[in-house]
C-alpha cells in the first residue's frame, strides 16, 4: 500500500483560520456575464454534519472543472480544504456518452466524529489525456485517491489507487478500503465504486455473471493508531453497525483461497465461512452483527455451468464451541427447481430487524442466437396488437428484462424460504419486521398503461408462507406499507384508505371530513387529481400523516380516532402550505415525543421558512424562521442539537448555515465570492388577470440599475407554473432555455408568467395567460413593445409555436423541441423510454382529454402547423435527431411548412443529442445562437453569418474549426429575403 506521511499529507491540505473582515475593496465596474465565466459559478453538494455536530463537510464544484472538499467547524473559524479533483465533469465532457452521468461520491464522517474520508478524483488533465489517447496505445489510466482527515489537527493521509471505502454505521475505530488490483484497467472516472457506511447488503461486489476477475487488496486501518491489516483478493466487504465484524468475500488466482470470511474486530481472528473453488457474491450482514449470507457456486463446480446456492451463517457462538460454525447452503439449485436459479445479482439483504433475509431468484437465461445464424435470413420486428409493451419499449427494457430477478425470503428461525414475486406480481417490498410484504401486480393493466390508464392490483404477502391476500384492484396510486408492517395506506377516490394486515379490515380514513380536499385543487390535466401527499408514519404505526393543500392531518390507520388537523387550520387561514421534515433519517417513523418540524411556503408571496408543531395535538404551528427566502436542506446532527440548512434568494446563493438553533444559524460557506463582480439585477413578483378572469402570478427579472422611465426589450419564457421559484437563486448557465441572469445582464427584461389550462384548449389557454400578462407589463411603461421575444423548450416550445400563430406581438421566437402537429405527434414514440405518446394527450400535459378520433377538432385547433400561414414572427428552433421525448420530425414539419410559406426560420439539429442537449459543446452553441438571434431581432445587433448565409451541408463543421468557406463555386444560392 502506498501512503503519504501525515506531515506531507498535511502540507497538501489547506488549513484556514477565519480572519476579521478587512476594509472593503474599491468598487469597480461590473463585468459582463459571458460564456467563458459560466464555469466560475460553483455548486455545493454532499453537505453533512458530523454526529456530534462539531463539523460540517461539503464539496464545491463547478459544472466543469476541479472540485474542492471543505470541512468547517460549526463552533469556530477552523476550516480545512482539500482538492477533490475533476468532480465537475459529467456528461458535459466532449465526446462523452450523453447517458453517462458522473456523480462524485459524497465524503463521510466516522461515526465517532474524529475522522472524515473522501475520494480525490484524478485531475482534469489526466482524465482528458486518457480520453484523447489514440486507440491501441497503452496509456496509464487515471486512478482515484482516498483521503483520510484527522479532524483534531487537519492532517490527511492520502492513499492512491483506491476503488472504494467504508466506515461502519455506529463504530468509528476502523476504516476499510479496497485498492485497485494490479491488473485493473478501469476507464477514466470508472473507479470509485460506492463506499460509505458499512451497510447490510452487497456493496463493493463484482458484477453478475459466471466469470469473475481476481479480487484486490483490502486494507483495514485502525484510525487512531494508523495500524493496517492487508487482506488479499477481496471482491466485497461489509461492517456490521457496531463494528464487531468485518465480512468479506475473495476470489483468488489460487482457487483454494477463494471464499467468504469474517474477521472478529475485537480479537483480530479470521474465520472462513466457506472456501474453495467457485464464486462468492451478494454478501450481506445484519445490522446487529449476528448473521451473514452470500451466494456461491462452490458446490456445483463439476457442472459445465455451475449454479449458485444461498449460504447462511450465524455469528453467534454455538453452545459448547468457541469457533463459529461454517456457512450452510440453505437454498440450493435443487430446491428452486429446474426453471429457476439462485441469482448472483439482485438484492441480498437482511431486513431491518434481522429476522428475514431477502434474496433473489432468476429465470434460466435465454440461449443466445449464434452471430452468423441470421445471415441470409429475414431480420425484423413483429408488432402484435396483444403485446403488453410496444416494440420500442421492449427494446429499451430488454437488458432489464433479460436480467430480471424475483424477490424471495429466507427465515433463519425456521430454516424455510418462499418466493414472493413472479412475472405477474412484479413489485414486492418487505416490511421492516420481515413478516409481511406489499405486492403489486400491474401486468393485466399493461396494455391500458400504454395510453395512461394503468394501475395495479395490490396484495399483502405472508413472508413465512408466501400466501397472498388481495387488498384492492386497479389502484392508480402507489400504496405505502407501514414500517412495522401493520397497515397499508393509499389514496383513491379523493380519500385516504388503510388496510389492517392482521384483520383484513379496509377503512376510509378521511371520507367523514366534509369540505376538505386531499386531492390537488389546482390540478388541471384531464386525469384523476393526485393526492397532495403524505408526511409519513409515527412510531409503532400509531398514526399516519397526510396533507391537504395547506395543512397537515394525523389519521388513525385503525379508523378508531377521528382525524386531527395537526396544524389546526392555520395553513389554510394564512395561505401557508405546511409539509413535514423528518430530521432523523435513520428511523423510518416520526417520534410523537419529538417536535414535528415543518416547512412552510406562502402561496401569495412565495416566502418560506420552518415551523414546529406537536403530534397528538391540534394547534397553530410555532414559526421557527421565516422570510422572503427559500429555505431548504434542513438536517440535524445525529447526537447533538446542531442544525444545517440553506437559504437563498434570486440574489443570494444557497450557501450553508449552521447553528445550535435554526433561527440562530450563521453562514459557514461562500461558494461564489466572484458573483459580486457581475451584474445581478432583481426579480419582482407580478400579478394580472387572464382572459378568463383568473388571477395569475409571474416573475419579472430586471437588469441591474433598472430605470422604470426607460424602455427595455422583453423576452417571455414559460412552462406551466413557475412563480413558486421567486426566491430560487439563478446561476449563469448556457443551454437551450434562456437564463434570466444572463439575459438581464445583456439589457433585457425577462418575464416568466404562470399558465392555467382549460381541458381541450392547451394552446388557447397559453394565449389567454401569456398575452394579458405581457399587456399588463406594457401598461407600466417600461417595456419596448416593438422588441419582445418568446422562448420555450418542450412544452414551452409547443406553447411558443402556438402563440405566434395567434398574435404578432413578438419580434422573435425560439420554440425549442416543439410539437407543432398534435395529430402526428399523438401516435409518436417517446424514444427515451420507448413508450407511446398517446397518454400525454389523453391524460397528461398536452391536456386534450381524449383520443384523436373522439376529439379530432381539438387536436387540429391546438396544432400550430395548421395556422402557420398567419405567422409574422421570425423563429429559431432546435429539434435534435436523437430527441428522447419529442419526435424530432415535428421540427421537420415546422421547418418545411415555414420554408414553403417563405417565412423566416432557422432550424438547428444537434446530431446524436437528445431532448435537452447533454453535450457541452451543443449546450454552449444553442446558447450562443439564441443570444445572437435575439440580439439581432430585439437589440439591433448585426446578424451572424449563419443567419445571413446559412450553412450548406458541404460546409458543415467548418465554422466549428474556423475554416473559411470557399470564396466561389460553393454551390450556394443567394439567401432569399424573409
In short:
This protein has 978 residues and is α+β, with helices and mostly antiparallel strands. It contains 16 helices and 56 strands.
Structure description:
With 978 residues, this protein is of the alpha+beta class. Among the domains are: 161-322, no CATH class; 680-943, Alpha/Beta hydrolase fold, catalytic domain (Rossmann fold, 3-Layer(aba) Sandwich), CATH 3.40.50.1820; 954-978, no CATH class. The chain is built from 16 helices and 56 strands. An eight-stranded mixed beta sheet has the order 12-10-11-13-14-15-16-17, with no helix packed on it. α9 packs across α10. It is globular.
Keywords, separated by commas or semicolons:
alpha+beta; 8-stranded mixed sheet; 56 strands; single chain; Rossmann fold; 978 residues
Amino acid at each position: 500500500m502506498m501512503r503519504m506521511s501525515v506531515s506531507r499529507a498535511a502540507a497538501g491540505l489547506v488549513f484556514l483560520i477565519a480572519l476579521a473582515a478587512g476594509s472593503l475593496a474599491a468598487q469597480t465596474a461590473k463585468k459582463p456575464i459571458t460564456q467563458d465565466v459560466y464555469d466560475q459559478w460553483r455548486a455545493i453538494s454532499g453537505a453533512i454534519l458530523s454526529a456530534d455536530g462539531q463539523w460540517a463537510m461539503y464539496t464545491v464544484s463547478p459544472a466543469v472543472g476541479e472540485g474542492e472538499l471543505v470541512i468547517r467547524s460549526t463552533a469556530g473559524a477552523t476550516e480545512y480544504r482539500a482538492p477533490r479533483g475533476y468532480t465537475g465533469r459529467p456528461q458535459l465532457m466532449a465526446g462523452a456518452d450523453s447517458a453517462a452521468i458522473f456523480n462524485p461520491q459524497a465524503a463521510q464522517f466516522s461515526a465517532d466524529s474524529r475522522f472524515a474520508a473522501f475520494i480525490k478524483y484524478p485531475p482534469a488533465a489526466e482524465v482528458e489525456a486518457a480520453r484523447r489517447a489514440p486507440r491501441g496505445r497503452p496509456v496509464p489510466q487515471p486512478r482515484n485517491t482516498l483521503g483520510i482527515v484527522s479532524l483534531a489537527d487537519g492532517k490527511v493521509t492520502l492513499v492512491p489507487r483506491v476503488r472504494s471505502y467504508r466506515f461502519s454505521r455506529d463504530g468509528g475505530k476502523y476504516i476499510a478500503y479496497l485498492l485497485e488490483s494490479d491488473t485493473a484497467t478501469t476507464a477514466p472516472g470508472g473507479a470509485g465504486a460506492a463506499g460509505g457506511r458499512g451497510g447490510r447488503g452487497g456493496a463493493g461486489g463484482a458484477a453478475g455473471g459466471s466469470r469473475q476477475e481476481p479480487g484486490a487488496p483490502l486494507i483495514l486501518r485502525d484510525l487512531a493508531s494508523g495500524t493496517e491489516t492487508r487482506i488479499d483478493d477481496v471482491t466485497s466487504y461489509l461492517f456490521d453497525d457496531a463494528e464487531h465484524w468485518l465480512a468479506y468475500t475473495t476470489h483468488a488466482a489460487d482457487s483454494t483461497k477463494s471464499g467468504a470470511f469474517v474477521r472478529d474486530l475485537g480479537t483480530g481472528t479470521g474465520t472462513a465461512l466457506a472456501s474453495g473453488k467457485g464464486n462468492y457474491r451478494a454478501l450481506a450482514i445484519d445490522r446487529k452483527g449476528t448473521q451473514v449470507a452470500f451466494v456461491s457456486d462452490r458446490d456445483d463446480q463439476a457442472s459445465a455451468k455451475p449454479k449458485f446456492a444461498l449460504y447462511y451463517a450465524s455469528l453467534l457462538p454455538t453452545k459448547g464451541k468457541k469457533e463459529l460454525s461454517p456457512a450452510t447452503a440453505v437454498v440450493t439449485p435443487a430446491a428452486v427447481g429446474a426453471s429457476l436459479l439462485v441469482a448472483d445479482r439482485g438484492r441480498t439483504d437482511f431486513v431491518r430487524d434481522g429476522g428475514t433475509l431477502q434474496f433473489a431468484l432468476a429465470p434460466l437465461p435465454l440461449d443466445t442466437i449464434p452471430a452468423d445464424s441470421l445471415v441470409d435470413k429475414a431480420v425484423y420486428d413483429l408488432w402484435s396488437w396483444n403485446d403488453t409493451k410496444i416494440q420500442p419499449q421492449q427494446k429499451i427494457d430488454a437488458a432489464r428484462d433479460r436480467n430480471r430477478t424475483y424477490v424471495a425470503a429466507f427465515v433463519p428461525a425456521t430454516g424455510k424460504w418462499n418466493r414472493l414475486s413472479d412475472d405477474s406480481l412484479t413489485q414486492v417490498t418487505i416490511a421492516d419486521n420481515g413478516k409481511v410484504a406489499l405486492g403489486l401486480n400491474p401486468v393485466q393493466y399493461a396494455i391500458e398503461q400504454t395510453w395512461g390508464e394503468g394501475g395495479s392490483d395490490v396484495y399483502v404477502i405472508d413472508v413465512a408462507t408466501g400466501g397472498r391476500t388481495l387488498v384492492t384492484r386497479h389502484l392508480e396510486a402507489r400504496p405505502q406499507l407501514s414500517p412495522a408492517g401493520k397497515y397499508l395506506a393509499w389514496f383513491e377516490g379523493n380519500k385516504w384508505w388503510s388496510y389492517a394486515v392482521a384483520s383484513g379490515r379496509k377503512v376510509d380514513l378521511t371520507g367523514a371530513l366534509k369540505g376538505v380536499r386531499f386531492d390537488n385543487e389546482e390540478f388541471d390535466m384531464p386525469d384523476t387529481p393526485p393526492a397532495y401527499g403524505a408526511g409519513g408514519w409515527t412510531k409503532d404505526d400509531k398514526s399516519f400523516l397526510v396533507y391537504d393543500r395547506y395543512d397537515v392531518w394525523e389519521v388513525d390507520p385503525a379508523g378508531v380516532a377521528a382525524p386531527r388537523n395537526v396544524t389546526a387550520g392555520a395553513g389554510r387561514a394564512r395561505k401557508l402550505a405546511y409539509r413535514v421534515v423528518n430530521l432523523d433519517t435513520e428511523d423510518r417513523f416520526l417520534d410523537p415525543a419529538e417536535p414535528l418540524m415543518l416547512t412552510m411556503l406562502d402561496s401569495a408571496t412565495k416566502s418560506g421558512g420552518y415551523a414546529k408543531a406537536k403530534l397528538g395535538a391540534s394547534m397553530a404551528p410555532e414559526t421557527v424562521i421565516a422570510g422572503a427566502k427559500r429555505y431548504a436542506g434542513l438536517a440535524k446532527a445525529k447526537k447533538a442539537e446542531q442544525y444545517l440548512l440553506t437559504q437563498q434568494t434570486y440574489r443570494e446563493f444557497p450557501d450553508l448555515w449552521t447553528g445550535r438553533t435554526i433561527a440562530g444559524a450563521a453562514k459557514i460557506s461562500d461558494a461564489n465570492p466572484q458573483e459580486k463582480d457581475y451584474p445581478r439585477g432583481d426579480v419582482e413578483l407580478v400579478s394580472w388577470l387572464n382572459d378568463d378572469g383568473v388571477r395569475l402570478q409571474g416573475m419579472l427579472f430586471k437588469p441591474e440599475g433598472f430605470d422604470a422611465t426607460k424602455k427595455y426589450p422583453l423576452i417571455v419564457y414559460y412552462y406551466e407554473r413557475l412563480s413558486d421559484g421567486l426566491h430560487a437563486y439563478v446561476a449563469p448557465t448556457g443551454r437551450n432555455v434562456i437564463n434570466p441572469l444572463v439575459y438581464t445582464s445583456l439589457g433585457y427584461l425577462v418575464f416568466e408568467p404562470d399558465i392555467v389550462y382549460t381541458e381541450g384548449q392547451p394552446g388557447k389557454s397559453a394565449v389567454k395567460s401569456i398575452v394579458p400578462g405581457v399587456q399588463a407589463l406594457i401598461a407600466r411603461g417600461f417595456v419596448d413593445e416593438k422588441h419582445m421575444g418568446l422562448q420555450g423548450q418542450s412544452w414551452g416550445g409547443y406553447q411558443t409555436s402556438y402563440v405566434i400563430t395567434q398574435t404578432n406581438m413578438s419580434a422573435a421566437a425560439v420554440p425549442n423541441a416543439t410539437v407543432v402537429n398534435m395529430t402526428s405527434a399523438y401516435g409518436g414514440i417517446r424514444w427515451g423510454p420507448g413508450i407511446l405518446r398517446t397518454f400525454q394527450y389523453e391524460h397528461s400535459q398536452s391536456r386534450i382529454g381524449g383520443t384523436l378520433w373522439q376529439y379530432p377538432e381539438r387536436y387540429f385547433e391546438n396544432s400550430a402547423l395548421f395556422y402557420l400561414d398567419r405567422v409574422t414572427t421570425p423563429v429559431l428552433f432546435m429539434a435534435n435527431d436523437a430527441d428522447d421525448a419529442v419526435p424530432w420530425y415535428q421540427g421537420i414539419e415546422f421547418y418545411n411548412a415555414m420554408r414553403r410559406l417563405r417565412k423566416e426560420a432557422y432550424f438547428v439539429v444537434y446530431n446524436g443529442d437528445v431532448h435537452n442537449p447533454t453535450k457541452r459543446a451543443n449546450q454552449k452553441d444553442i446558447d450562443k445562437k439564441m443570444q445572437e438571434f435575439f440580439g439581432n431581432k430585439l437589440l439591433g445587433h448585426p446578424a451572424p453569418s449563419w443567419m445571413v448565409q446559412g450553412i450548406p451541408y458541404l460546409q458543415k463543421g467548418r465554422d466549428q474549426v474556423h475554416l473559411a468557406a470557399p470564396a466561389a463555386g460553393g454551390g450556394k444560392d443567394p439567401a432569399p429575403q424573409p
